[in-house]
Amino acid sequence: MLIEEGEMAGWVHGILKAHVASITVCDPKRNAWVAKGTDKNDGVDAAKLAELLRLGSFSAVWHPDGGEVAAFRSWCSTTTSAPGEWPG
Hints:
The structure is a single chain. The chain is mainly alpha-helical and 88 residues long. The protein has one domain (2-78). The protein contains 4 helices and 3 strands. The protein has helices at 9-16, 32-35, 42-55, 66-78, and strands spanning 2-4, 24-26, 60-61. The radius of gyration is 17 Å and the shape is elongated.
């Protein structure tokens, strides 16, 4: 599955990753075919994203899983270490 980066992408990625074989978030600024299309609606955009996925023609954006984010937040709230010393 391929979804575009946006305000809800992290949440969508976290929810759907358990239900699909793979999920990738892509950079909409590099997908001008989708972002700058004249016929903008969810169906058209979804079809274009499916075609980009089929062709492997997209730029992925990294999204951490929930465990990595929770570990980092925990470390930030409890540590007195200097920046760059995060063990993860």
